[in-house]
Specification:
alpha+beta, q64v53_bacfr protein fold, five-stranded antiparallel β-sheet, 5 strands, WGR_dom_sf, WGR_domain, YehF/YfeS-like_WGR
């Protein structure tokens, strides 16, 4: 479960376009033996939009999270750390 609780925080900056975005993901257990992939995105420094997608297993949620991370990295997002 340690892996599921890990937050992934990605950022994308392009000063020429005044683009300062973030994308945050984490997997957390639900109350009905399900798992949620929680995503938040928006402009750095502002509240973001939140979406939860539900999965039957932790493994499926982690796979979905990894696919999103890879897609965002292809668009120029980088891990903040």
């Amino acid at each position: 479960m340690k892996q599921a609780m890990q937050h992934i925080y990605l950022v994308r900056h392009d000063s020429d376009k005044n683009l300062h975005r973030f994308y945050q993901l984490h997997v957390t257990p639900g109350i009905f033996e399900d798992w949620a992939l929680v995503r938040e995105w928006g402009r750095v420094g502002s509240p973001g939009t939140v979406r939860k997608d539900w999965f039957e297993t932790e493994e499926k949620a982690l796979i979905a999270r990894q696919r999103l991370v890879e897609a965002k990295q292809k668009k120029g997002y980088q891990s903040k750390g």
